């Protein structure tokens, strides 16, 4: 398979991703053109295939630390792989020929960043071997493990796509993903030639707190377009206190997940919100999400960006986007769609590209982003 890719300038790949929101599997059918190591991506189709409700509930239970036997975890691994394979087969039908590869992130159910000399630990379920068997397409999966083993955070990994696609000759850019968790890639001018200057990190809660609160207080799965938050008033004193928590003041590299921003974390914040209406609570959590992002730029980026390119589901929250535009001024804040890439499919495209790089024997991590000691090949290959 590696040989069959080499020397070809255009290949067809599927990227599969489900993030910490656990909303569904993002699938991207993407053409990757590689000319003299200049990559271009052309999205042919991009869809989110929602998880069946019982599977989503089981994933969230495991993420929340509920006890399961190893057998139950293995069965969950296969159910997730089957769902990922179904998503791949469904999107494959949108193209005219069989894809050359699948790059599958899987579903994170546990993520422990490295601390001091202790190696991190990360678990993505949805085994690549089963996806390869069910789709009959070479599948690359388990992308985060090699970076963790090289001493890194295993995250963010989308930064490689960001540098390949969005480096600008003159501007300082930030690619800001707002999934369940927020993460960014900082791209100084010409970063494609100066990859060592690129850096990035997980910078906040993303949608996860807003989603959990919307479910608990309003019985909806998320606050569509921020319509609920927009009706409330944020409590800035509370937010400024929350921003003093260890995660927000820790210097990058850093990564986080549902282990920190958990149901217990939300319960502790809600306990401090008893004087607020439910609308004010959503407004406060939305402002917290936006302020955590803005504060991380001011605290940790060497140069404040000229442009901020938003990806992930948070970009569809118009109210959150307004708050970011306000808090990040004078930077221009726009979704990646305005720069030629679907913001909904961007992470799935990233894993298609990372799969392609793996099969070509090219490193996928950026040590300046993840904190790994070296560039490494990311992912296991299953045929
Ligand atoms: N129209 C919308 N309005 C507000 N929030 C939205 C909208 N569409 C998606 N989202 C948010 O985006 C989340 C999914 O984002 P996604 O990028 O898929 O995250 P992840 O990578 O963690 O799966 C949803 O859970 C929801 O919070
Ligand atoms: Mg998602």
Could you say which overall geometry the principal axes of the C-alpha atoms support?
A: globular
Tell me the CATH superfamily of the largest domain.
ATPase, nucleotide binding domain
Written as H for each helix and E for each strand, in order along the chain, the element string is HEEEHHEEHEHHEEEHHHHHEHEHHE
Q: State the helical fraction.
A: 25-40%
* Beta strand count: 12
Structural class based on helices, strands and sheet pairing: alpha/beta
The percent range for strand residues is: 15-25%
Q: What fold name goes in the CATH topology slot of the largest domain?
A: Nucleotidyltransferase, domain 5
Distinct ligand kinds: adenosine-5'-diphosphate, magnesium ion
Structure explained in plain terms:
The chain has 383 residues and is of the alpha/beta class. It folds into two domains: 2-153 and 345-382, Nucleotidyltransferase, domain 5 (2-Layer Sandwich); 159-339, ATPase, nucleotide binding domain (Nucleotidyltransferase, domain 5, 2-Layer Sandwich), CATH 3.30.420. It has 14 helices and twelve strands. Strands 1, 2, 3, 4, 5, 6 and 12 form a seven-stranded mixed β-sheet that branches. The chain is globular. The model has no long low-confidence stretch (mean pLDDT 95). Bound molecules: adenosine-5'-diphosphate and magnesium ion. Adenosine-5'-diphosphate binds at residues 18-21, 23, 179-180, 207, 211, 222-225, 312-314, 316-317, 347. Adenosine-5'-diphosphate is lined by residues 18-21, 23, 179-180, 207, 211, 222-225, 312-314, 316-317, 347.
């Amino acid at each position: 398979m590696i040989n069959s890719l080499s020397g070809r300038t255009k290949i067809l790949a599927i990227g599969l991703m489900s993030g910490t929101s656990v909303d569904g599997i993002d699938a991207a059918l993407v053409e990757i053109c590689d000319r003299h190591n200049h990559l271009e991506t052309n999205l042919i189709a991009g869809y989110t295939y929602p998880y069946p409700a019982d599977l989503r509930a089981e994933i969230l239970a495991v993420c929340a630390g509920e006890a399961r036997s190893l057998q139950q975890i293995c069965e969950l691994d296969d159910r997730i792989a089957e769902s990922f394979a179904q998503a791949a087969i469904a999107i494959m039908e949108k193209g005219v020929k069989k894809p050359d590869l699948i790059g599958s992130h899987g579903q994170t159910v546990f993520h422990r960043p490295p601390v001091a000399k202790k190696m991190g630990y990360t678990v993505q379920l949805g085994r690549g071997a089963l996806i390869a068997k069910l789709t009959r397409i070479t599948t690359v999966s388990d992308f985060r493990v090699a970076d963790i083993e090289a001493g890194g955070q295993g995250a963010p990994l989308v930064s490689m796509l960001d540098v390949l696609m969005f480096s600008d000759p003159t501007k300082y850019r930030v690619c800001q993903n707002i999934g369940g968790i927020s993460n960014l890639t900082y791209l100084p001018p010409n970063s494609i030639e100066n990859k060592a200057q690129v850096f990035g990190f997980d910078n906040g809660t993303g949608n996860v707190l807003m989603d959990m609160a919307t479910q608990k207080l309003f019985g909806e799965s998320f606050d569509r377009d921020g319509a609920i938050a927009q009706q409330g008033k944020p409590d800035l004193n509370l937010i400024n206190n929350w921003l003093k928590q260890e995660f927000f003041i820790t210097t990058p590299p850093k990564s986080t997940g549902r282990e920190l921003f958990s149901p217990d974390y939300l319960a502790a914040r809600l306990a401090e919100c008893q004087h607020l209406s439910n609308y004010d609570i959503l407004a406060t959590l939305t402002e917290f999400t936006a302020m955590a992002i803005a504060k991380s730029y001011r605290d940790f980026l060497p140069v404040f960006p000229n442009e901020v390119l938003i990806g992930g589901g948070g970009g569809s929250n118009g109210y959150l986007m307004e708050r970011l535009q306000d808090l990040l001024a004078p930077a221009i804040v726009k979704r990646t769609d305005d720069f030629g890439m679907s913001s909904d499919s961007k992470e799935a495209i990233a894993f298609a590209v990372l799969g392609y790089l793996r099969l070509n024997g090219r490193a996928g991590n950026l040590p300046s982003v993840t904190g790994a000691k070296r560039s490494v090949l990311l992912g296991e290959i299953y045929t």
